[in-house]
Amino acid sequence: MKLLEKLTMTDGVSGNEGAVREIIINEIKKYCDDVSVDAMGSIIAHKKGKGRKVMFAAHTDEIGVVATFIDENGFIRFSNVGGIYVKEILYSKVRFSNGITGVIGAEEDEFNKKPSLDKMYIDIGAANRAEAEKCVSVGDMAAFAGDYREQNGVVISKALDDRAGCYILIEAMKRLKKNKNDLYFVFTCQEEVGLRGAKTAAYAVNPEYAVAVDVTDTGDTPEAPKMAVRLHHGAAIKVMDRSVLCHIDVREALLSAAKKAKIPCQLEVLNIGGTDAGAIHLTRTGVKTGAVSLPLRYMHSPSEVASINDINACIELIIAAADEL
User: Fold this and answer.
1) Do strands 265-269 and 235-240 pair parallel, antiparallel, or not at all (unpaired)?
2) Is the pTM of this model over 0.90?
């Protein structure tokens, strides 16, 4: 799992995925016939085959924050890049691309109530605006900072959404010895801010079938909303979310592949959010699209939790599905 650690610990807020992109290209270039990067910044890797044109997609970006104003005392006001749960980020550490680290605080009267972003700030320890501006400029983006841990069969890290999906596709590419179908492995940019990279990449590839690989919420923590997806119960095959109704042909193919290969799986109905599947299925005249999801606790937070066995089940399912679709 060293590659997963490397991917999650490399910062890549939406629009700033370059360092992550470099790692992925170096990992996959030996396992595909050609690899390119489109104008938006998505990686398109091709493993040639004579069958159907099938696209697998996982996004390279992560949520973060962007500096919007620096006050006279050196505190940095900020906005979100991607979806952030405000109650989960207070006192979290963030890291700017130059290595400067700060702590998210809130105005004093916010401590006894739910804070809002406009009442929060980043403290980098600067004494005043001039000192802060030597380190951070308006428009600089920062990722959440944290460490990577494996214990009790799980991975704990920031940015598992969706570096785990990238890891799953990379490992599937490495293990695929032969492929009947014409396969495209796409590592998209800017998913967290509107599925943007998937729109342009899918237009270029123009696949017949597509599968997005991303994370999904779970219903297995205390007093969690009712949801069938649980950690340690295998890959989740998506039925629907707010962005897509998965095509029944793709869903049935994924279920068939899982059954034949005896891969543990579960069905997912997500009442919030979406994935690259939401953009891909509307490309050109339409694409038969589905999704494989990794169950993830504490999604869109600085500390996410996923099962190692579920990650491996997702890898096996992508391999099995490559010829099943």
Assistant:
1) parallel
2) yes
